[in-house]
Design a protein that fits this description.
One of its GO terms (molecular function) is retinol binding. This protein is α/β, with parallel strands linked by helices. The protein contains seven helices and 14 strands. It has one domain: 2-enoyl-CoA Hydratase, Chain A, domain 1, CATH 3.90.226.
Length: 267
């Protein structure tokens, strides 16, 4: 389409050209995640390595991304901005149990606040889901197809965990907003369709599990595309692009009050 459109090819400013192409691609493929950018001097980021620092320092860093409170009515509240992966969880797990989990475990209901959760590791999904499900039978939580490796990874609930499970009988509510993105969307979608959690708030962003930035030939133009796909075994569908629809739709700023009211009613 671009090659036959001489008006587009006549745009001399590369940043403007990238913007016009990006808009055209998004509309053509109906996928808002795809992007075209002009980035001279772009250096691909290396995968972050596990910091070689003491576990207690790592735990302190993680605590900065997690807020824990016990609200009126014996309701546990966890505000999570980043979902840690398996490697990090194994390294700092005992400290997180002491600082965070053991405080909310005895509560009569829990709220997970994902309204500002915009990053996370895929390997952390089974950890979170397993704390709110039974140890047996194991549950097929999700399947993630990675196009770069042409492999599908199945995510299953875990039979053993550090610390005790929250269980399946106490109310669990997940707060979402239009900014909730990626791995947090997957956790919310899984727990919703396992009928373990009630989603309260706004429809989520409809992000992706994994993005790649691909250089276009010998130029400074790049195309960002999703290279992995989540396929839920229960619905056969994905939360990507469309987002996770709330069970109770309210403005993000009102979601916490609505969740507290729901839990008090149920308990």
């Amino acid at each position: 389409a671009a090659s036959s459109n001489t008006e587009i090819l006549g745009i001399s400013d590369p940043t403007t050209l990238a913007s016009v192409l990006a808009d055209g691609v998004k509309k053509t493929v109906s996928d808002s995640r795809v992007d075209v950018t002009y980035e001279p001097g772009f250096v691909p980021a290396a995968p972050p390595a596990m910091p070689n620092i003491p576990p207690e320092h790592l735990a302190a860093m993680i605590k900065d991304t997690v807020k824990v409170e016990i609200l009126d009515g014996d309701i546990g509240y966890l505000k999570i901005q980043h979902i840690i992966g398996e490697e990090m969880a194994q390294k700092v797990g005992p400290l997180l149990l002491e600082y965070i989990w053991d405080k909310v475990l005895p509560t009569s209901g829990m709220i997970l606040d994902f309204r500002n959760a915009v990053s996370g590791e895929t390997s952390g999904i089974p950890y979170i889901v397993s704390y709110y499900t039974d140890p047996e039978p194991l549950i097929h939580i999700d399947s993630v197809y990675d196009r770069t490796s042409d492999l599908t990874i199945e995510l299953w609930s875990m039979p053993t965990l550090l610390g005790k499970r929250y269980g399946t009988s106490k109310p669990l509510i997940i707060l979402t907003s239009k900014d909730t993105l990626g791995v947090a969307e997957d956790v919310a979608y899984c727990l919703k369709h396992l009928k373990r959690a009630t989603i309260v708030g706004e429809k989520t962003a409809g992000g992706t599990m994994k993005m790649a930035k691909i250089k276009v030939g010998d130029t400074d133009f790049y195309v960002s595309v999703p290279v992995a796909k989540s396929i839920n075994p229960i619905t056969g569908k994905s939360w990507e692009i469309t987002g996770v629809a709330p069970d109770v739709e309210v403005a993000a700023e009102d979601a916490l009050d609505a969740a507290i009211a729901i839990i008090k009613l149920r308990t």
